[in-house]
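3.2 Worked example (two chains)
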Amino acid sequence: MHKLGKVLIAVLALAVFGGTAYGYSTMQSLDGVTREDVIETPDPGEQPADGSLDVLLVGRDSRTNQQGEPLDPAMLRELRVGANGDDLTDTLIVLRIPNGQKAVKAFSIPRDSFVAEPGTKDKTKINGIFGHAKFASASAQRAAGKTDKAEIDKVAITAARKATLKAVEDLTGVKIDHFAEVNLQSFYDISNAVGGVEVCLKRDTKDVKSGANFKAGKQMIQGADALAFVRQREDLPRSDLDRVVRQQVFLAGLAKQVLSAGTLANPARLSELIDAVKRSVVLDGSWNLLDFVRQMQGVTSGGIAFETIPVVNPDYRYNPKQPTATAVQVDPAQVKAFAASLIGAQPTTPQTPAGPKVDVVNASGKDGLAARVSDLLAEKGFGKGDTTAETGRRTSVVRFSDASGPATEIAKLLGGLETQKADSVAAGHVQVVLGQVYKGPGVSAGGGAAGVRTDQPITSEDTGCIN
């Protein structure tokens, strides 16, 4: 279930504490928040390549607190969730803070986005990478002779967090600077602490699984109702995509509530917020919260905008053996361009003013694929070569003869294809061979597999009524 709300509430609370003298001094009491060494230590003096500070916000479908202790059964009943939960990261948000600017951008990654799994040749839903990495780490530790369950779990969870972070970096091209994670109870606690948030629905809606039961129109929600609001996907026209919009609208409303209402000037509410953060949030070990607050001073409610990464196909049938199994298909090249555009930067493109030329061979059997891929690569700065067709090849490959750099870049742009040195490729050329199982950019006619941004950015200025 999604916990986007919980995570960004906590981070927004941290961001705006510095807005008052009381809030700034109260930051000292966050010393007890749980820390985890998830982020690789940067080289001394290293600056973000794109001039931004990027925070990964993770919500875990966990029935334990951040110390690994089970949540109280009475709390689980209040939250309207069962006692069993998988190790899933069903909320992933990247918070982009451009250097020297006050306009903050947040974008969501749908939980079922079908992505490359770090350290393997496999692809999977991004929300399952946490559990896969945790299981692999625990198994390896046991095989090495470790028997202390608490220590095994601790090491395995750290490995899972790092794998999730790496998957997000690989998909988005964003180098993550800081990490925040929350559990189920934190959304309940934090939404209560701020006194609730106003939302507006177009129609009555009800969902037994999440416990959602809402009437049309404007309403204030908090606690268990707020959790149900951002969890619901049944009885929504676009299921998970509408659920993401729900979360973004709630967060935009929350930003307005925290930043423009009396929350920060109310010592009791601030104390509740800080207590909730300390109970349920995990931050990376290198995050200096006071420095973060200084950077975020002056942010206004309208200066935070929420979007979702481009989506190719929200009903992608990724396994022919299981025709009912679906995922959200995304194009990594499109996602990287989208993420870069949020802070005004341009995505990295090959610096090849005089070449190389790219020859594209269509061995997929799909009409027009070579021409579409050739056009897409030309837009990225590569020269156009020949487009031809052949038959009988299942997989795809990018071949080069004299320079591997451009071939590597092309392979990445086309979804992570294999590269191969081949003397048959002419000097100054790269050859792309597209096989029958190619699923990358250009696979569809009419703009190819370029991701579609179906929603307008959401800000707290006017969220409107939603599904």
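3.2.1 Second chain
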Amino acid sequence: MVLNPLFLYMGNMISSDGLFLALSLIWITLLLWIIHRPNTNLIIWHTLVLFIAFTVRYNALIYPVIAAVVFLVSRMQVRKKLAGAGTGILLCGLFVLYTGNKYQALTGIWQYSPFSGWLMANNAMYAYRHVDSAARKPVPVRFKTLDNMIRTHFDSTRDVKKYPAEGLMASTVYMWSSGMPLYAYRDKQFKKDTTASELRKWATMGPLYKAYGAYIIRKYPWHYLRYFIWPNANKYYAPPVEFLESYNSGSYKVAPIAQLWFGYKSTRVKTRTKDLQIKLLDFYPIFSGIINVVMACCLICFFMLDGLRMNMLFRKGMLLAGAIWLLNAGFTIFASSAALRFQSFPIMLTTVFTGLLLDWIWKMGIKEQHEARQIKEKDQQAKLISEALA
């Protein structure tokens, strides 16, 4: 938790990843305090941290639910439990309502996150790409133009050597690349509207892309499981280093706006290393894969060894960690994209609690050996006494 090179590299990025990691660590710490030593001040601090984290990253969508359960099983008074669980959910709900109303004023459609629509269409395209052209089913009229553009794109980019982006598995290239069908269709829809901002164009397409993505997933569920869910599960198991594998995305130049913002003398940047590559984090995917397997095995052993009957506070802590681990895995695999910067908090959380579980299993083993030794000694004493009496 202290001597971790990941902190240095995440802190060096102009991104919300480092901020969200810090907020998540504070959040889990507050939950542990609520379990062990609950008080009114913790309710206030937790509500504040939860709300800020919720506004920073979509991964925090699962946080209010987890927090509510922790409050309900804590040793607080009932009214404080309800206050702790309710205030966090209320503030997050108000943020959702406020954001949705802002998007409705901008696009005419209420939605919390256009990003989710783009992401669903992106994910569905990874399944749709592998559907044979003869097996493609007709789509509703409102999707026809978009669907034709996507089909044409797939048919013309079969050669992955010529089009390497098409060979990527469970990525987000379809939703961020300007040359892809989703952006091309968006620009076509706003061809006559020269006054529309980039935000309005992007947000307006969210509901349509969400509906289209959901339709494709329903029509081809097997392809979706095979070509998106399974590859994304593998990426969650061992998250790629992604943007953290090189400084400045591998470029020696920055945009003029970055030069202006940081007061650089020119757009050219340099590093203290010989090249822009970062090698120090290459062990993380392997480490993450190992720790995920060990965590799963430890949780199974925890239940098999009647861990639920042990110390109440330890049990609650383990259940909290296990719940976050499982919910984050489900959220990432089914609705997001796995990468090291997104999974930094779950990896750290899993590492710490895996260590605690291993320590508990080790102590249980020593305890059982000691009890078995005592039983053996008592049996031997009883045998000696019976022989002496005989």
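3.3 Remarks
Residues 229 and 334 are 6 Å apart (CA to CA).
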